[in-house]
């Protein structure tokens, strides 16, 4: 595979959009993996701190309504 931005050899794929990228264009970005109830029913999340991100796809700050899913 080739890097989406520069056509060099890809080393990783974006966790968010799937684009391939070379080492120069890869960016580390945290990503949420799962949620569970911890001690005293406290919600906790499992996060990967250094997931690969292409830097091109836009990670939205707010949730998107999806009423058709129910």
Estimated share of beta-strand residues: 35-45%
- Element string (H = helix, E = strand): EEEE
Distinct helical segment count: 0
pLDDT under 50 segments (min length 5)? none
Query: Can you give the mean pLDDT?
Result: 92
Strand line-up in the sheet with most strands: 1-2
Characterize the main sheet: 2 strands, antiparallel
Termini Cα gap = 38 Å
What integer value in Å does the Rg equal? 16 Å
Indicate the structural class.
mainly beta
Helical coverage, percent range: under 10%
Q: Please state the overall shape, judged from the principal axes of the Cα atoms.
A: elongated
Overall strand count: 4
Describe this structure in words.
The protein is mainly beta and 70 residues long. Helices cover 0% and strands 37% of the residues. The protein has strands at 12-13, 20-21, 27-37, 43-53. The protein has a two-stranded antiparallel sheet with strand order 1-2. Strands 3-4 form a two-stranded antiparallel ribbon. The protein is elongated and about 50 Å long. The model has no long low-confidence stretch (mean pLDDT 92).
In short:
The chain is mostly beta strands and 70 residues long. The chain has no helices and four strands.
